[in-house]
Protein backbone atom coordinates (compact mmCIF):
# COMPACT_ATOMS: atom_id res chain seq x y z
CA UNK A 1 0.00 0.00 0.00
CA UNK A 2 2.77 2.43 0.89
CA UNK A 3 4.57 1.62 -2.38
CA UNK A 4 1.47 2.68 -4.35
CA UNK A 5 1.35 5.98 -2.48
CA UNK A 6 5.02 6.62 -3.22
CA UNK A 7 4.48 5.93 -6.92
CA UNK A 8 1.51 8.30 -7.15
CA UNK A 9 3.54 10.98 -5.38
CA UNK A 10 6.09 10.78 -8.21
CA UNK A 11 3.50 11.66 -10.88
CA UNK A 12 3.83 15.35 -11.79
CA UNK A 13 0.87 17.54 -10.87
CA UNK A 14 0.41 18.66 -14.49
CA UNK A 15 0.00 15.02 -15.52
CA UNK A 16 -2.36 14.17 -12.66
CA UNK A 17 -4.58 17.15 -13.53
CA UNK A 18 -4.12 17.05 -17.31
CA UNK A 19 -7.83 16.60 -18.05
CA UNK A 20 -8.67 19.68 -15.97
CA UNK A 21 -6.07 21.92 -17.63
CA UNK A 22 -7.37 24.54 -20.06
CA UNK A 23 -6.35 24.24 -23.71
CA UNK A 24 -4.21 27.35 -23.28
CA UNK A 25 -2.08 25.74 -20.54
CA UNK A 26 1.46 24.75 -21.39
CA UNK A 27 3.37 21.61 -20.39
CA UNK A 28 7.01 20.64 -20.65
CA UNK A 29 8.77 17.70 -22.30
CA UNK A 30 8.41 15.10 -19.47
CA UNK A 31 4.63 15.54 -19.51
CA UNK A 32 4.48 15.17 -23.30
CA UNK A 33 6.60 12.02 -23.11
CA UNK A 34 4.28 10.56 -20.47
CA UNK A 35 1.14 11.49 -22.42
CA UNK A 36 2.38 9.76 -25.56
CA UNK A 37 4.06 6.90 -23.61
CA UNK A 38 7.45 7.38 -25.19
CA UNK A 39 10.93 8.62 -24.41
CA UNK A 40 12.09 12.23 -24.72
CA UNK A 41 14.03 11.33 -27.87
CA UNK A 42 10.93 9.76 -29.40
CA UNK A 43 8.92 12.90 -28.65
CA UNK A 44 11.41 14.89 -30.73
CA UNK A 45 11.31 12.28 -33.54
CA UNK A 46 7.52 12.43 -33.55
CA UNK A 47 7.63 16.25 -33.61
CA UNK A 48 9.86 16.08 -36.71
CA UNK A 49 7.48 13.59 -38.37
CA UNK A 50 4.44 15.73 -37.51
CA UNK A 51 2.74 13.20 -35.20
CA UNK A 52 3.20 15.53 -32.22
CA UNK A 53 2.81 19.30 -32.67
CA UNK A 54 5.91 21.44 -32.50
CA UNK A 55 6.54 23.14 -29.17
CA UNK A 56 6.68 26.87 -28.59
CA UNK A 57 9.72 28.57 -27.14
CA UNK A 58 9.25 31.58 -24.87
CA UNK A 59 11.91 33.21 -22.75
CA UNK A 60 14.19 30.22 -23.28
CA UNK A 61 11.56 27.68 -22.16
CA UNK A 62 10.21 25.03 -24.52
CA UNK A 63 6.62 24.00 -23.91
CA UNK A 64 3.58 22.57 -25.66
CA UNK A 65 0.02 23.93 -25.62
CA UNK A 66 -2.37 21.45 -24.05
CA UNK A 67 -5.04 22.08 -26.68
CA UNK A 68 -2.68 21.19 -29.52
CA UNK A 69 -1.60 18.03 -27.70
CA UNK A 70 -5.22 16.99 -27.14
CA UNK A 71 -5.91 17.48 -30.83
CA UNK A 72 -2.90 15.31 -31.72
CA UNK A 73 -4.05 12.63 -29.29
CA UNK A 74 -7.57 12.48 -30.74
CA UNK A 75 -6.19 12.50 -34.29
CA UNK A 76 -4.01 9.54 -33.37
CA UNK A 77 -7.00 7.69 -31.89
CA UNK A 78 -8.92 8.02 -35.16
CA UNK A 79 -6.35 6.06 -37.14
Describe the protein.
A 3-stranded antiparallel β-sheet has the order 1-3-2. 13% of the residues are buried. Helix content is 53%, strand content 13%. It contains 5 helices and 3 strands. The chain has 79 residues and is of the alpha+beta class. The longest helix has 13 residues, at 66-78. The model has no long low-confidence stretch (mean pLDDT 89). The protein has a single domain (2-78), classed as Multidrug-efflux Transporter Regulator, Chain: A, Domain 2, CATH 1.10.1660.
Brief write-up:
The protein has 79 residues and is α+β, with helices and mostly antiparallel strands. It has helices spanning 2-9, 13-16, 29-35, 40-49, 66-78, and strands spanning 26-27, 56-58, 61-65.
**Uncertain parts:** none
- Could you state the order of secondary-structure elements as H and E? HHEHHEEH
Distance between the termini: 38 Å
- The appropriate CATH architecture is Orthogonal Bundle
Give the beta-strand count.
3
Beta-strand content bin: 5-15%
The average pLDDT is: 89
Q: Which structural traits does this protein have?
A:
alpha+beta; single chain; 3-stranded antiparallel sheet; 79 residues; Multidrug-efflux Transporter Regulator, Chain: A, Domain 2
SSE diagram, text form:
Blueprint (H helix, E strand, L loop, with lengths): L1 H8 L3 H4 L9 E2 L1 H7 L4 H10 L6 E3 L2 E5 H13 L1
Antiparallel strand pairs: 1-3, 2-3
Amino acid sequence: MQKARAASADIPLALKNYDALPDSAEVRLPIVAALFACSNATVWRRVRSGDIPAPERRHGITSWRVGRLRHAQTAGDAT
